[in-house]
Amino acid sequence: MGSSNSRKKIDRKISRVTILCGGSSPERDVSILSGKNVQKILQNRNVETKLFVWNGIFEELEKVESPCFIALHGAPGEDGSVQRFFEKRGIKYTGSGPSACELTFDKMATKEFFIKNGFKTPAWWNRCEEFPCLLKPRFGGSSLGMKLCFTKKDCDVEREEEHFFEEYVDGREISISVVEINGKIEVLPILEILPSNTFYDYESKYKINGTKLIAPAPLQKKEVENISNMAKKIYHKLGLRDFARIDGIISKDGVYLLEVNAIPGMTVFSDLPASAKAGRVFMDEIILSALESSLRR
Given a cut of 60, is residue 258 above it in pLDDT? Predict the structure, then answer.
């Protein structure tokens, strides 16, 4: 989809980039993989890069140079805290702003957003009210801390962080990646996820042969149009920028939305790169467009 002319235009504006990854969340290792993959992509385009593997201490961020590609997953990189820190210091960065990051990092707040705006989402409770159900952490990503519960005993687990219980919806799990290239919002081919485990957990996401990703998902043209329009509306209403991923399930009752990821994984195993490849969209174009966009803000 990308053109060589647009890519040359971007190259003239980008000289040196700091790639911020690591952090102090349980998703640190995945973040580093994302950062290294972004660095490799940019180096292949002859962009000078510095990989900053952050230790989670905010004072260390004073060393960050602008522009900065944020490849952090989990708090405090994905919950708006780093974004606020950068904005106070005039540091240009990729991705969504503090408010959008804060809202989407909170899965319960995101589900309330879905309901308020007329989108379906599985029911959720503080205590499990029906089985089977999913035990989910309220904050965080990479499917860490998730558990499928079939009995009350399954739900009786020690939980250091805030969790909630979500209705189990049987259906086809999908991933919808939205990107901005040269100011134009595009929905990449919808991805269908076939995990080797019962659901798309951390092990399925990041182990070899843990999941089969089908892109584009085998859907009717009207289904693709409806889901794509839905994704664009969510992207606009949340005020997201540069890229995002929306997770959902197609059931017999329609499309149920699960969550929104403001900083999608950029590893070689991640959903967004798989969707980009299926749509013949270059990852370097997505990354460079995000960097160029950050300079205009």
Answer: yes
